[in-house]
Specification:
Helix content is 54%, strand content 14%. The protein is α/β, with parallel strands linked by helices and 303 residues long. Strands 3-2-4-1-5-6-7-8 form an eight-stranded mixed beta sheet, with helices on both faces. Helix 7 packs parallel to helix 8. The structure holds guanosine-5'-diphosphate. Guanosine-5'-diphosphate binds next to helix 5. Guanosine-5'-diphosphate (GDP) binds next to helix 5.
């Protein structure tokens, strides 16, 4: 929880800073103010549509409440954000879908976003919780990817099932599922290649991996986690959109939230893509991965 606070503080400070700056220049609830607010939200990567919506609804809300004071207007902004987030997250689950028997999770995402790191961190958490964990190095496309996962496997003290570089990713997954069943493992985390530049190939590859899993575990994979880098802001949004068109993404890992003012994109992801953020990365260390709690996050950001 301390790490979460630390990470959030950074997001909070920067996001608050821009908001505070806006409120410091506040003179009256006029059109100029709403335009500034809209621009501030867009800059914080809250997302274009969501920023417009927040500003539009706030215009009405402020009139309705007859809010004139700086503090009242600020309060209305926070409340509107929480309201919109909650409305959009209705019926969605922020928890990872963990099974009684073997749980299989696929990890997708482009290079450099923190996919391997997140898998390593999560593997370590489950191992510490007494679960039997296996990793599958199914990103056979990139030469360094297998070695990198092996390094994280050692760090997290869990076994990595691997094949040859350039080999068939589905064959690696097949081996990993067989091994997981034989060992009665609880968790299998699968690292996959994320080549968005060739969407058809990527789609075929992921479908093939899913079929291999489903042959043995009919309701699997239980999660398809997309990893995106929060520091890339709107780029991460574009990636998420593209992956969503390619495969059924069930949840998001938002990494590097410790180093960015773009915390507002949590709202954009929810409102424009309807993908639940399930995990957040708050640093490079093995312990720097936390479950995501939307209410804590939004409330914390504006305190
Ligand atoms: P991959 O190519 O997607 O597997 O990315 P990696 O897992 O290799 O991570 C790329 C870089 O991002 C590495 O230097 C990681 O240490 C760093 N990284 C990953 N997650 C986080 C995070 O939550 N915060 C910070 N600050 N760095 C991170």
């Amino acid at each position: 929880a301390q790490k979460m606070d630390k990470g959030l503080k950074k997001t909070r400070r920067t996001f608050s800073q821009v908001l505070n700056e806006l409120m410091a220049n506040f003179r009256s609830v006029d059109e100029e103010f709403f335009e500034d607010l809209e621009e501030t939200l867009i800059t914080a990567d809250v997302g274009f549509e969501t920023s417009l919506r927040i500003t539009d609804e706030l215009r009405k809300e402020v009139k309705l409440r007859n809010a004139k004071k700086n503090s009242d207007v600020q309060k209305a902004i926070v409340e509107k954000m929480v309201e919109i987030y909650e409305e959009n997250s209705e019926g969605e689950n922020n928890q990872l879908n963990i099974q009684q028997g073997l749980t299989v999770m696929l990890f997708v995402g482009v290079n450099g976003v923190g996919k391997t790191t997140s898998i390593g961190k999560l593997a370590n958490q489950y191992r510490l919780a007494g679960k039997k964990v296996l990793l599958a190095a199914a990103d056979t496309f990139r030469a360094g990817a297998i070695d990198q996962l092996v390094v994280w496997g050692e760090r997290a003290q869990v076994e990595v099932v691997r094949g040859n570089a350039g080999g068939d990713p589905a064959a690696v997954v097949y081996d990993a599922v067989e091994k997981a069943k034989a060992q009665e493992a609880d968790i299998l985390l699968v690292d996959t290649a994320g080549r968005l530049q060739n969407k058809v190939n990527l789609m075929n590859e992921l479908e093939k991996i899913k079929r291999v899993i489903q042959r043995e575990i009919p309701d699997g994979p239980h999660e398809v986690m997309l990893v995106v880098d929060a520091t890339t802001g709107q780029n991460a949004m574009v990636q998420a959109k593209q992956f969503k068109e390619t495969t059924d993404v069930t949840g998001l890992v938002l990494t590097k939230l410790d180093g960015t003012a773009k915390g507002g994109m949590v709202l954009a992801i929810r409102n424009e893509l309807h993908i639940p953020v399930k995990l957040v990365g708050l640093g490079e260390g093995i312990d720097d991965l936390q479950p995501f709690n939307p209410n804590d996050f939004i409330n914390g950001m504006f305190k």
